[in-house]
Design goal:
- The chain contains 7 helices and 8 strands; from the N terminus they run H-E-E-H-H-H-E-E-E-H-E-H-E-E-H.
- By secondary structure, the chain is α+β, with helices and mostly antiparallel strands.
- It has a 5-stranded antiparallel beta sheet with strand order 1-2-3-4-5, with helices on both faces.
- Helix 2 packs across helix 4.
Length: about 190
């Protein structure tokens, strides 16, 4: 499915900022994202390490949770829009659910866009934003030990394993907590 999504929609602008990278637009989710998000969540391989396959009612709840986090906390995952096509290609960004093992920037990209560097490109912009605008002192990435693709993204971001943790329900899985401090990130970006 290819859905064109307007990057500067009024609903997204009310919730939070729009960030742009060379190839991507990152903005808060809107209802226009629902159908492509459902397709993404129905892909067993793409959804494997982010809670598993989701039904449309579960996707709706997830989108509303993220929109609610934008409204109440001032941050959450961005919808990722491919500039060239206007297509919704994933969600990524700052995330800190109750009981989470830290201040995370996570990612999930539709499978036909794997290998293009979108997760790294988008996460870089989201980490810059989290450190510069949210004042975070550490960014983590919770990654299951079998998720080699996300481990590679974390390495490209300059992160390393900091500790292990168990994610709170409903995830309830053991993860490696990858990450880095604000100082390490800034030093690496400056060098």
């Amino acid at each position: 499915m290819n859905f064109k999504v307007e990057a500067g929609s009024p609903a997204a602008e009310k919730l939070g900022p729009t960030l742009e990278t060379a190839r991507l637009v990152l903005r808060p989710p809107t209802m226009a994202d629902f159908e492509p998000w459902c397709a993404f969540s129905a892909d067993e391989e793409a959804a494997r390490y982010i809670g598993g396959v989701g039904t449309p009612p579960q996707v709706w709840r997830s989108m509303m949770t993220m929109a609610g986090a934008w409204a109440l906390e001032g941050f959450s995952m961005f919808s990722v829009i491919e500039k060239e096509s206007g297509r919704w290609v994933g969600r990524l960004g700052p995330w800190r659910p109750h009981g989470w093992p830290g201040t995370e920037v996570g990612w999930g990209v539709v499978r036909d866009c794997w290998g293009r560097g979108y997760a790294t490109e988008g996460a870089t912009a989201a980490i810059d934003w989290a450190f510069d605008h949210l004042g975070w002192t550490e960014v983590i990435h919770t990654i299951e030990p079998a998720n080699v693709n996300s481990q590679a993204v974390a390495r490209r971001l300059g992160s390393s394993i900091l500790r292990q943790a168990r994610l709170p329900p409903p995830m309830d899985v053991e993860v490696d907590v990858w990450g880095q401090s604000r100082e390490d990130w800034k030093r690496r970006r400056a060098g």
